[in-house]
Amino acid sequence: MIWLIDIRPFEPEDTRAVIELEEEIFHEPSPILYSMIERYPIDGFYVAECDGVVCGYLIGVVLMDEARILLLGVKQEYRRKTIGSMLANYFIESVRRITNMVRLEVRSSNLAAQTFYFKMGFRFVGIINGYYKNGESAYVMIKPLDQLTLFL
Ligand SMILES: CC(C)(COP(=O)(O)OP(=O)(O)OC[C@H]1O[C@@H](n2cnc3c(N)ncnc32)[C@H](O)[C@@H]1OP(=O)(O)O)[C@@H](O)C(=O)NCCC(=O)NCCS
Q1: How many CB atoms lie under 10 A from the CB of residue 111?
Q2: Which terminus, N or C, of the chain has the lesser number of Cβ atoms within 10 Å?
Q3: Which residues belong to any copy of the N-acetyltransferase domain (predicted)?
Q4: pLDDT on residue 65
Q5: For the CA atoms of the chain, what is the radius of gyration?
Q6: What gap in Å lies between CA 112 and CA 4, rounded to an integer?
């Protein structure tokens, strides 16, 4: 099946679809998501639309000179079709000129996301013990951009 995929900034009309997607994927509402919705219009909040259906979203921010991916999710039945890569690349290209790196935290148990980010050029640079509410650790991953080379 071939979909028409559009990556675009979040619009208020996407609110319900994005909240439903967040609950479906992460099983708990994220305060980050609600605060980004309330702060509309805001940079770094993108959705993927597949044949008119919101099938993924990404929330990223730039703090000082470091860009961070805070949330990324693709609806189950749309995975492994490059939508996650398209969302991540859209954000990375939007910050490339203003930052040297993109950073993120990923659950130590989330092998799928780690594999995905590694394929996107992110590398493991550390671990934060007890980062998540349930006590789980986070791996810190960084993707260096044009001016930065990691000693890894
Ligand atoms: C992680 C996630 C966003 C990836 O989205 P996606 O649209 O499926 O990713 P892509 O199709 O662009 O995948 C690109 C590559 O990443 C790797 N990859 C993606 N999902 C993978 C998985 N489940 N297992 C192993 N490798 C995977 C593959 O190398 C894939 O290329 P391939 O399909 O040619 O083998 C999606 O699985 C998801 O929403 N997961 C739940 C939420 C989550 O964990 N978010 C990240 C933490 S915030």
Answers
A1: 10
A2: N
A3: 5-146
A4: 82
A5: 15
A6: 25
In the block, residue with structure tokens 């490059």: 82
Answer whether 84 contacts ligand 1 (Cβ < 6 A).
yes
Residue type, 49: E
Q: What tens digit of pLDDT does each residue of 67-104 get?
A: 999 999 999 999 999 999 999 999 999 999 999 999 99
Return d(Cα 42, Cα 132) in angstroms, integer: 26
List the structure tokens of 30.
Answer: 């994220």
CATH of domain 1-99: 3.40.630.30
Tell me the C-alpha distance between 148 and 16, whole Å. 39
For residue 119 and ligand 1, the question of a CB distance below 6 A is answered with: yes
- The CA-CA-CA angle for residues 9, 69, 11, to 5°, reads 15
**To which residue do tokens 């609600």 refer?**
34
- Name the residue type at position 23: E
Ligand 1: residue of 116, 140, 141 to mutate (most ligand atoms within 8 A of CB) is 116
